[in-house]
Amino acid sequence: MKSNVYMFLLGTMCLLLLSCGEEKLPKPRAMLRLNYPAPVYEDLDMDCSYTVKKNKMVQIKNAKYTRPCWYNMYYPDLKATVYLSHYEIKNNLDSLLRDAQNLTMEHHIKADGIKNKEHINEEEKVYGTLYIVSGNAASPYQFYVTDSIKHFVSGSVYFDARPNYDSILPAANYLQNDLMHFMETIQWKN
């Protein structure tokens, strides 16, 4: 009987010694790492009252509406579109600014936050704001640029996917740089 107890204790100790080791934990789910090519910019000279530099990956498409200088910049690799609209200022700058800001604020229901980056270039007479909408809002970016006398260009970014902030963040960051470049390089023709 004593030998059975000793055998049991010896077996238990061996089992404990063998089971002591590195604990196995499940690995976390991997996230897809998205890398996009460095942007290469070229002139975009539409039949509009301004010129701008655009990313070469962009495909220009006519807007759904047939208004002059309304077009879409489509990013096939990002599955995103920047919808651009040009308005001629006719004593309505306050109204255009209010509309641009209200369009951004419509996203506050789903947004975690809205920040803005102002752009001012006194020399070229370019004044604008980029609104950065974080969270699962439909549009992560809204912006406008104006000379405050004749021209007002507004833009909105939408992805061809259900809003999921974490999933679109790499593409959204890439687009933010392009939008800032757009605002920095726009020049009025007249």
TrEMBL record:
InterPro entries xref list: GldD-like (IPR019850)
Pfam families from the UniProt entry: GldD_lipo
Keyword Lipoprotein: yes
Superkingdom in the source lineage: Bacteria
Keywords: Lipoprotein
Protein name from the UniProt record: Gliding motility lipoprotein GldD
Organism for this UniProt entry: Aquimarina addita
